[in-house]
Specification:
With about 200 residues, this protein is mainly α. It has a domain at about 105-190. The chain contains six helices and no strands. Helix 4 packs antiparallel against helix 6. The radius of gyration is 45 Å and the shape is elongated.
């Protein structure tokens, strides 16, 4: 029995020395002296142990949501806590909506919208006139590298005359827009509105 124990102890120690030798051999293999190979080996081990990234969903992954069909109206109308039937509250709501849509054309809000739109038109037309005047000034001192075109423009002045015609038309348009604005102010006075609405 003593020899059995001795044999078991000997086998156990041999196994331990074998494991220690294997671990030492693994360390020597991993430290080959080549830093690139060691770094690649380490990166592979970290990649294996790293958790997988979570899935990011985009609009392409999510299917378009189907439209929800409206529920059919109940066959017997029930009363609300206020005592009204849903049909009567729906009629009242639609009447309020139609009255909001049919706003008085002589109300302050409507007049303010009209005046703002008219002033916007005038501002745009004045900006266009400004651009046309700058183009006309440029055409007045224009140098043409082509001598034939320069001679033709000196004689006919077509380009300058076209720009001057556009400027005259734009000035007339601005005068008309300002006259319309003045007429709108007169109309506000005539309908009994406040002149403050014109600002």
């Amino acid at each position: 029995m003593r020899t059995g124990r001795l044999l078991a102890t000997l086998l156990f120690l041999t196994g331990l020395s074998g494991v220690a030798a294997f671990a030492q051999q693994d360390q020597t293999q991993s430290a080959t002296g080549d830093p690139v190979a060691d770094a690649a080996r380490k990166a592979r081990q970290e990649k294996k142990s790293a958790p997988k990234p979570k899935k990011v969903f985009t609009d392409d992954d999510v299917a378009a949501k189907p439209a929800v069909a409206e529920a059919p109206a109940p066959s017997n109308p029930t009363t609300n806590p206020s005592g009204e039937t849903p049909a009567s509250t729906a009629e009242a709501g639609s009447q309020e909506d139609s009255s909001a849509k049919k706003e008085d054309p002589n109300s302050e809000a409507q007049w303010r919208k009209r005046f703002a739109a008219q002033r916007r038109k005038i501002a745009i037309a004045e900006e266009e006139l400004n651009v046309l005047q700058r183009e006309a000034e440029k055409a007045d001192v224009q140098y043409y590298p082509d001598p034939q075109k320069a001679l033709k423009e000196q004689l006919t002045r077509n380009e300058i005359n076209e720009k001057n015609d556009k400027i005259a038309a734009k000035k007339k348009e601005i005068a008309d827009l300002k006259q319309q604005l003045s007429d709108m102010e007169d109309e506000v006075r005539r309908t009994g509105g406040d002149l403050g609405w014109t600002r």
